[in-house]
Write a structure and sequence with these properties.
This protein has 263 residues and is mostly helical. It has one domain. It is 72% helix and 3% strand. It contains ten helices and two strands. The chain has helices at 2-19, 27-34, 39-63, 69-93, 108-128, 144-161, 166-177, 181-201, 211-231, 241-260, and strands at 97-101, 104-107. Strand 1 and strand 2 (104-107) form a beta hairpin. Helix 2 (27-34) packs antiparallel against helix 3 (39-63) and helix 7 packs across helix 8. The longest helix is centred in the first third of the chain and has 25 residues, at 39-63.
């Protein structure tokens, strides 16, 4: 099972390298269901893993000029602010028992996992659905209002469940800034890295963290993103999104069933 966990970690990196988002959706269930990390801690672990992996992936895109700094700043600043507020203020305010009725009890870990499952289903729909082609432009007017709004939404998603939010960032950059797909992926990886660093900063100094596990899983995803970015020059990641979307949808449904009916 542990070997399978590390193979999945490599796969997460490959997916991030190929399509720039969505792969991080698998990191939280990987940590919780295979490596046995508690849900609240796993959201912090996810940020570290996704952040380091995203930074490695972003480097090759920066080197090739496929990062739009203006969009990264416009999207990243509100996103990072919301991530910081969510991790350091909002998350600690959530009680351990959110709702209770007779024998039924909705705990904080249950809430986070169910919220994550809902996000997974939403992400899968975005991946499966064929989007209308957008004419890319390296220099185009930016819809600042929509970019900032999406940055806030991504900040909330990242802050609550640790996922990078690439499935939201990439379409926003393509639609509202008319970026080419490769530029959107590179810019997305840069934003994901920044968000993850800010989010994980609140976990720093936590001596209960399993650094051996954290660094070993991160190493596996980094290997994967090297493979993914290399393969992305030969394969159009957009063609793989629907297939991966169906997989994410099944995972989301599984989590809902496991956290409700199989408790």
């Amino acid at each position: 099972m542990i070997v399978a966990g590390y193979l999945l970690a490599v796969l997460i990196g490959i997916i991030l390298g190929l399509i720039g988002g969505g792969g991080s959706m698998l990191t939280l269930p990987l940590l919780v269901y295979i490596f046995g990390v508690d849900i609240v801690s796993a959201t912090g672990y996810t940020m570290f893993i996704v952040g380091v992996t995203g930074a490695v992936g972003a480097f090759s895109y920066i080197k090739n000029g496929w990062v739009n700094l203006k969009n990264a700043i416009a999207f990243g600043i509100p996103s990072m602010l919301i991530v910081f507020l969510t991790r350091n203020w909002l998350m600690p305010q959530i009680p351990m028992v959110i709702f209770q009725y007779n024998a039924f009890q909705l705990t904080k870990p249950d809430f986070i996992m169910l919220l994550f499952a809902v996000i997974m289903v939403a992400a899968s729909m975005a991946m499966i659905k064929k989007s209308k082609p957008v004419v890319p432009q390296l220099i185009a007017p930016m819809n600042l209002k929509m970019i900032v709004l999406n940055g806030i939404v991504v900040g909330l998603v990242s802050g609550f469940v640790g996922a990078g939010g690439g499935f939201l960032i990439i379409p926003a950059l393509v639609i509202f800034s008319k970026l080419p797909m490769k530029a959107a992926i590179g810019t997305s990886l840069m934003i994901i890295t920044a968000n993850s660093i800010v989010g994980f900063s609140g976990e720093w100094g936590n001596h209960q963290m399993d650094w051996n596990l954290l660094l070993s899983v991160t190493s596996a995803t980094v290997i994967g993103i090297f493979v993914g970015t290399k393969v992305s020059t030969k394969i159009d990641g957009a063609n793989l999104k629907p297939v991966f979307g169906w997989f994410v949808l099944l995972m989301g449904i599984y989590i809902v069933v496991k956290e409700t009916l199989l408790k």
